[in-house]
């Protein structure tokens, strides 16, 4: 069995005043009308990994309104043969606090226990939106393989923000830039290396699997990148004049992009049909999960929001078969039970009700 939640408790979280789900490791099918609170459950599970979850929300926005009395999540997380008690809460006006097995912990510590991957409808625009979304998508893949990638990303971004502040203030003294550029260079090369290694692991997982979903050839652009911290530091120093004129840093891994080509057709993902773009995303999430299973010895938790509604019947059945073969606890949402018929008794089912703006979760037996 892979990483699984065996129990999830929510209090005053989004639309849920209180809910408790007892789980057995099988895939989880959540269904109910739009707006009932299904995605809120997936968001709660996504917070058992580092970061701000699948909606990138700040802690204050996660509290149920209009009460705004703070929220809490508790979970029994099984990973690596061990059971961990995870507690998260945020009081009004405060950031999220995390406790692991009764001890206060940083969010990044969650990444050393659990791997959580997700696919949500907002990601359907991944191939057509700006490069920032694709970089964030790639960095989450890289962080799934190496939790320290998250810390490297934060280090780079913090140093870049400070350098950009100097640029906007038109500071020209090179002494102010040297230390920041050295930090950016060291973290930037590690950031770039983590992205490249993640793409190599995804490519290997795709090549080794037979799947009903189309394969994407992935590449990090530009192809020519600084090979060392010294090279990147020199590039940043050389670019100061142009950066001063622009008021921001114009070179570095924050300018990279993820390119994808539908391998069987040789067509860039951005030019594919909507259905093909969705299938490519599903394929990448599954490849990421397979690569993690090979690397960690167990698959991650998968969060697939409204994925069933955007696949035809054959692909939907193929997705369920691949999830079950992988042994992953996949949390999936849909509007009706018919979307999950092909799962049979391979999944647990819960119906989510909207009762005057408050959500209620009921196990289906």
What does this structure look like?
With 365 residues, the chain is an alpha/beta fold. It has eight helices and 15 strands. Helix 4 packs across helix 5 and helix 7 runs parallel beside helix 8. The longest helix is centred in the middle third of the chain and has 34 residues. The relative contact order is 0.18.
- Tell me the structural class: alpha/beta
Find the CATH superfamily of the largest domain.
P-loop containing nucleotide triphosphate hydrolases
Distance between the termini: 22 Å
- The ordered H/E elements are EEEHEEEEEHHHEHHEEHEHEEE
**Nearest-angstrom radius of gyration?**
22 Å
How helix-rich are the residues, as a percent range?
Answer: 25-40%
Shape-level CATH architecture of the largest domain: 3-Layer(aba) Sandwich
Please work out how many helical segments DSSP would assign. Answer: 8
CATH class term of the largest domain: Alpha Beta
What percentage of the residues does DSSP assign to strands (E)?
15-25%
Contiguous runs where pLDDT drops below 50 for at least 5 residues: none
Instruction: Using the alpha-carbon principal axes, give the shape.
Output: globular
Strand arrangement across the biggest beta sheet: 2-1-4-5-6-7
Mean pLDDT figure: 94
Reported for the largest beta sheet, the result is:
6 strands, antiparallel
Q: What is the total tally of β strands?
A: 15
Oligomer: single chain
């Amino acid at each position: 069995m892979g990483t699984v939640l065996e129990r999830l408790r929510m209090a005053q979280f989004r639309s849920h005043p209180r809910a408790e789900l007892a789980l057995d490791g099988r895939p989880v099918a959540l269904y109910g009308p739009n707006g009932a609170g299904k995605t809120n459950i997936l968001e709660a599970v996504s917070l058992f990994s580092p970061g701000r979850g699948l909606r990138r929300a700040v802690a204050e926005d996660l509290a149920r309104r209009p009460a705004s009395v703070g929220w809490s999540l508790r979970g029994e997380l099984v990973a690596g043969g061990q059971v961990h008690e995870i507690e998260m809460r945020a009081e009004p006006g405060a950031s999220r606090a995390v406790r692991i097995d009764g001890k206060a912990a940083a969010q990044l510590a969650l990444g050393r226990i659990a791997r959580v991957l997700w696919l949500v409808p907002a990601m359907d625009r991944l191939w057509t939106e700006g490069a920032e979304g694709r970089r964030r998508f790639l960095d989450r893949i890289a962080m799934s393989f190496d939790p320290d990638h998250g810390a490297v990303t934060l280090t780079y971004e913090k140093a870049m923000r400070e350098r950009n502040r100097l640029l906007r203030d038109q500071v020209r003294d090179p002494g102010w830039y040297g230390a920041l550029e050295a930090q950016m260079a060291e973290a930037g090369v590690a950031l770039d290396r983590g992205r490249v290694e993640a793409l190599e692991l995804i490519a290997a997982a795709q090549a080794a699997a037979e799947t009903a979903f189309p394969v994407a050839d992935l590449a990090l652009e530009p192809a020519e990148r600084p090979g060392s911290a010294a090279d990147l530091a020199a590039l940043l120093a050389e670019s100061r004049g142009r950066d001063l004129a622009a008021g921001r840093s114009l070179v570095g891994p924050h300018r990279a992009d993820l390119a994808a080509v539908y391998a069987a057709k040789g067509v860039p993902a951005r030019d594919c049909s909507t259905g093909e773009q969705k299938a490519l995303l599903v394929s990448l999430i599954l490849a990421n999960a397979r690569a993690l299973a090979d690397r960690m010895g167990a698959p991650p938790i998968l969060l697939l929001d409204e994925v069933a509604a955007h696949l035809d019947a054959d692909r939907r059945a193929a997705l369920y078969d691949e999830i079950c073969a992988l042994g992953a606890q996949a949390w999936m949402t849909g509007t009706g039970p018919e979307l999950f018929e092909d799962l049979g008794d391979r999944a647990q089912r819960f119906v989510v009700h909207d009762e005057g703006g408050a959500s209620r979760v009921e196990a289906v037996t």
